């Protein structure tokens, strides 16, 4: 059994989870498709970040909000967790570099907007990504 609390403590400094978080984390960690509904500010990002850190491979996070992507990536990188985001406004070369680095295992988390998932560049590179966990961080993206 994975010690999710030790991951929480190591990266976030908390001793225990908020209500519902551990139930969702254990479901995700056991490989089950999981729908976690939590209020804004309820700590839902931890429910996919912790089990992703407990496993090998990349966590692909789909979210339409650029501000959320940037915030999540900044917060993860500040905790020494490698993360990147692909969104409008990035140059073609920046997107290529992020995807190549994702293929080579530089990142643990890759945040992508829904419309980027359908681009030719993403679809070609996605064939080579070692994705272990997919997360949809906003329900209207499902």
Quick structural gist:
This protein is of the alpha/beta class. Helix content is 44%, strand content 13%. The protein has two domains: 1-55, no CATH class; 56-142, P-loop containing nucleotide triphosphate hydrolases (Rossmann fold), CATH 3.40.50.
Portion in beta strands:
5-15%
Taking the alpha carbons of the first and last residues, their distance comes to: 30 Å
Number of strands: 4
**Could you say how many structural domains there are in total?**
2
* SSE-based structural type: alpha/beta
Low-confidence stretches: none
H-E string: HHHEHEHEHHE
**What coarse outline follows from CA principal-axis ratios?**
globular
CATH architecture heading of the largest domain: 3-Layer(aba) Sandwich
Strand arrangement, major sheet? 2-3-1-4
Topology:
Elements: H1 4-12, H2 21-29, H3 46-53, E1 58-62, H4 66-78, E2 83-86, H5 92-103, E3 109-112, H6 114-117, H7 120-126, E4 131-136
Parallel strand pairs: 1-3, 1-4, 2-3
Question: How is this structure best described in words?
Answer:
Helix 5 (92-103) links the parallel strand 2 (83-86) and strand 3. The chain has 142 residues and is α/β, with parallel strands linked by helices. The chain contains 7 helices and 4 strands; from the N terminus they run H-H-H-E-H-E-H-E-H-H-E. The model has no long low-confidence stretch (mean pLDDT 93). A 4-stranded parallel β-sheet has the order 2-3-1-4, sandwiched between helices. It is 44% helix and 13% strand. It has helices at residues 4-12, 21-29, 46-53, 66-78, 92-103, 114-117, 120-126, and strands at residues 58-62, 83-86, 109-112, 131-136.
